[in-house]
Amino acid sequence: MLSVLRVMNLGVIGEVEMDLPGGLIALTGETGAGKTMIVSAIELLLGSKAIPEMIREGEESAEVTGLFSDGVSELVLRREINRSGRSKAYIDGKLVSAAEISEVCQNMVELFSQNLSTSLSKAQTQLELVDSFGSIDTRELKRLLLAERETSARIDELIQTESLRLQRLDLLGFQIDEIGRLLPIEPDEDDRLEAEIAILSRVDEIRRAASMGLEAISTDRGNGSGRDLIAGSLHWLSADGTFSKMVDRIRSVVVELDDIASELGEFLDGLDEDPERLDYLRRRLVVINEAKRKYGPTLSEVLGHHEKATLEFEELNNFDASRDSLLNRLAEIREALAKEQSLVRSARAESASAVSIKVEEYLRELRLANARFRVDLSSAPDGSPVNFLFSANPGMALQLLSKVASGGEMSRVMLSVCLVAARLAATMVFDEIDAGIGGETALHVGRALSRLSKDRQVIVVTHLPQVAAFADFQYVVEKELGSGRADTSVRPVVSSERISEIARMLSGQSTSEAALRHASELLELARVTRKAT
């Protein structure tokens, strides 16, 4: 609910801060005192259009802040307006658009005035009311509608992209063939090719270097090799135990040199010039590098691209099968959807009838005895959207509520709808819902508002003492002249002050004995009635 409302420099309001409790709250005061600006401030919090003319005379900006609380968490909304016509909206200090703040508030606050209902005038909300009242589960209907939309879109996409599909198939086929000519291939083949090419292209140079190394260490390649000289030193060094560790190391070196000599010999025996092999390797490496340039930069990525391209090619090549499968799926969805729509329409028709009867009962309580109200289902298979139809007088045809209801009638119809609705906003604001009524009808409106406020916060701007008397809390909006301009203040009234305010509303005077007595009686009547309902 709206726990705190702070308004600065809006219309005749300089600065006002209101701590608002739950239950029914009545805002009363003389005409022109600024009650409408309180409602305008709430409208701004709901995302309504901000205009510079709303700013208080002599000020450059206006600001409205609302603290909303559900007893567990809090949310702070703020709107700022400046003379340039630009406005800013904030949610918990974060700058947002007016549309975003409106979306946040749509389930928090419901505002009704003579010409405005924030959400109950919307077809979607009216449909939700019917579904909620009849406990109609529409989850399966929504799932099937979404499935039909998505499947139809997929079929359209397949058909519309046929030429693109064929072009893509050509490209994928070329890529698959190009990479396929390299198969079989290992991810490191390019490195191995480069190493082998490096050897084959320098056979003579490598043979000479290997031969020189072999001659230097091999016992089979002449006398006086390095290996033999080192081995010969073992005889002399072994004689002296001082060199035992060094002797062990020399023996290891001799063994290692023998191994190297053996490997060099094998390498030289297998080292032959092979121009054909070298040419083949070079040509294959060129093809591999070209593939890496296009699909790489590594062979692993080239192979990965080949796999993905093959899968996509197969999928695109199965177009007819995919399309037929989707068409069969769509037929199944539509068959199930038709059955579900029929069930939902039947349930909505029953719920709409019950809502219509219940709203008419409340309208009779609110002294619209001859009024007729109908929730009309559309011709769509599931009956959505619905329309609210209304007739205030006998013999008049039912027409759209928004077209034929007067301001007072509209307010009472919406109040009746609110009493019927199972799910409502935590805060409801009624701006002069009692316009055009009085006497006993006003008492019934007050009682209805009190009933509505049992489990939510209801704020009502009223000129009628009968309505104000039913409020759990009453605030007086007053305008004073000071410093050459009007200034509005808001204060709660209790006990004798409240009696005086009700008396003023009854007779225009707050001090006459008759008015005070009547006010006390009215407050007592409202208290007893509230307790009984």
Describe this structure in words.
By secondary structure, the chain is of the alpha/beta class. Among the domains are: 2-119 and 425-532, P-loop containing nucleotide triphosphate hydrolases (Rossmann fold); 188-297, no CATH class. The chain has 18 helices and 15 strands. It has helices spanning 35-45, 98-105, 123-133, 139-160, 162-180, 189-200, 203-217, 226-238, 244-270, 275-295, 299-317, 319-365, 401-404, 407-420, 439-452, 465-469, 495-507, 513-532, and strands at 2-10, 13-19, 23-28, 61-69, 74-82, 87-91, 94-96, 109-112, 372-377, 386-391, 399-400, 427-431, 457-461, 473-482, 485-493. A six-stranded antiparallel beta sheet has the order 2-1-4-5-6-7. A hairpin with a 4-residue loop joins β5 (74-82) and β6 (87-91). α8 (226-238) runs antiparallel to α9, α10 (275-295) packs across α11 and α12 packs across α14. The longest helix has 47 residues, at 319-365. It is elongated. The two termini are 23 Å apart. The mean pLDDT is 86.
Quick take:
The chain is α/β, with parallel strands linked by helices and 533 residues long. 55% of the residues lie in helices and 18% in strands.
Q: What are the SSEs and their pairings?
A:
Elements: E1 2-10, E2 13-19, E3 23-28, H1 35-45, E4 61-69, E5 74-82, E6 87-91, E7 94-96, H2 98-105, E8 109-112, H3 123-133, H4 139-160, H5 162-180, H6 189-200, H7 203-217, H8 226-238, H9 244-270, H10 275-295, H11 299-317, H12 319-365, E9 372-377, E10 386-391, E11 399-400, H13 401-404, H14 407-420, E12 427-431, H15 439-452, E13 457-461, H16 465-469, E14 473-482, E15 485-493, H17 495-507, H18 513-532
Parallel strand pairs: 3-13, 3-14, 8-12, 12-13
Antiparallel strand pairs: 1-2, 1-4, 4-5, 5-6, 6-7, 9-10, 10-11, 14-15
Helix pairs in contact: 4-12, 5-11, 6-10, 7-9, 8-9, 10-11, 12-14, 14-15, 17-18
